[in-house]
Amino acid sequence: MTNTDNHLGDRAGGTSRDRAAGTSPEGRGSAEGGTSRDRAAGAVAMDRIFDAVALRGPVCVGLDTAIEHLPPSLRSTHSSRAEAMFAYNEALIEATADYAACYKVQIAYYEELGLEGLRAYARTLEAIRRSGRVAIADIKRGDIADTASRYALAHFTGEFEADCVTLNPYMGLDSLEPWLEAADKFGKGLFALVRTSNPGMRDFEGLALQKGGHVYDEVAARVAGLASRGRGERGYGTLGAVVGCTERDEAAELRARLGGVFILIPGYGAQGGGAEDAALLLVNGNGGIVNASRSILKAWAKSGRPADSIGIVEAAEAARMATLEMRDAIAEAVRSQASPR
Amino acid sequence: MTNTDNHLGDRAGGTSRDRAAGTSPEGRGSAEGGTSRDRAAGAVAMDRIFDAVALRGPVCVGLDTAIEHLPPSLRSTHSSRAEAMFAYNEALIEATADYAACYKVQIAYYEELGLEGLRAYARTLEAIRRSGRVAIADIKRGDIADTASRYALAHFTGEFEADCVTLNPYMGLDSLEPWLEAADKFGKGLFALVRTSNPGMRDFEGLALQKGGHVYDEVAARVAGLASRGRGERGYGTLGAVVGCTERDEAAELRARLGGVFILIPGYGAQGGGAEDAALLLVNGNGGIVNASRSILKAWAKSGRPADSIGIVEAAEAARMATLEMRDAIAEAVRSQASPR
After folding, report:
1. Chain B CB contacts of A242 below 8 Å
2. For chain B, is the Cβ count within 10 Å smaller at the N or the C terminus?
3. Does the beta-carbon distance from A204 to B170 stay under 8 Å?
């Protein structure tokens, strides 16, 4: 299913406003930016991610950037923590762009610093957009009707514009519907939590249902039922799923049932998941992205050099190598899982 | 269980920082502010709400303020939409403070306007604090471990400091734990979604479990199991529950099972719930708060006067009367439900 004949050409990134106006800003050339026309066809964000994975592999770099994730020498070189975090993000985006399919920005790390932190969040999303890459806002929103519509405007337009967001489905399908409408309108994508990889997953997501299966199986079924909504040229709909690395049988079963659903896979590296686990949730190496945050942001800490001697160049290079190694490890796992067939 | 001998005295509100320093700021005198010593004992936010309900009834005024909720004449009287919304909030807080137990601020309506909107959000929380009232941030966060700790710092300290927050429990108890720790530390309160009143509630919250009951029954049981965490002088723990107005039998049963758990009840008025429904989720008129947003924010639209002639004074007065009427309707329902016993 990997599509190498993906008509990439000279697509360019841009904002919703640019797209609404049918213009393509200069200086934003990138393979998976998507043309205005593509975007109007819907599910464009998922097409863009698919093409990015085909080109550069399925690594999603998680910018869960806290000041403690920076090398000590960089923590006080800017006027504020938020400035230092943004500068680090910018360096990391540039350093990892060759091997990253996309970037996921966890808003909590910026919200912690109040308005200044959220300004760094907005600037980080802008830097990702400027690099021509897809930005996923990890905001896990879930609310009803009018509130959900407001959130969608907040995160698909304006200062906090992202290409995709994560959602919490607990309140039901009517909490997802306004997001689906907005995503179709603006050419965006969604990832609903289905089965996460934290131990507490057993408490509610993992409860056994009277009709069989678990709560997360029902969520998966409802998400799969919406896979045709805004299906793009690469076969994936507007609504994706968050599925953490898990036991092998379960992963294969969930992947099979989530046909046409792009999967965001957290839990790689620091959270214990490995390349073999992640590969099981992919479809021939595509159809999903694998997120790593800490292991890339703090790759500098494993360089063996004294922490105080590490500057931004060394830290960015360590992040680049960690991204490349992760990409290659997943590619190897995909190959070894494919070969027995 | 209504406690009228509630030792209110001269308690004063203040910020986490004030409280950590053991000081009590001047000019913030209010009945339910709580002393530093009370706060150090934990569950203080729930004690404060309990005392406020005993004094002024269980109405929680929802500041889901969008520009369309303002009378037409006020929509363009400020330099920006966010400024107009904040000015309206300030007038509403002053007008309704005599009859409101607390205020709930839905962050989506502010996030929609980007950084400027979030500045209005921060200023609204500050205005509530200044009035001596309890501020509930309706943010419905739910995330793992370190991320949850960051969110807790974001919403219990600094510019976005609130007294309580709403949480989404889908990811499990380990997504609530960092919030419980932070709430204990800062004297704050939490409300976890249990059973909401939107139609989509049936999709996942309402699924029937193999072991009996629904998903929300299990969430209720786990929340009730944590009721002793930080239990305050009024008998309620740090962790409250969000339970929407629902069928009578179900409401009475849920209330009985959520012993020692303060309940935030949305869905009054615009969302179809009435005083009778809400009263069932209270314990002799306390132990819960009943939120109304639209019916108070837009009470001016029912005044019978031409919309263009309504200024801020008339709109605030309409909100004040709507709050009073709602308080009295719930009090009447509580009395009529108590009398047959």
Report:
1. none
2. C
3. yes
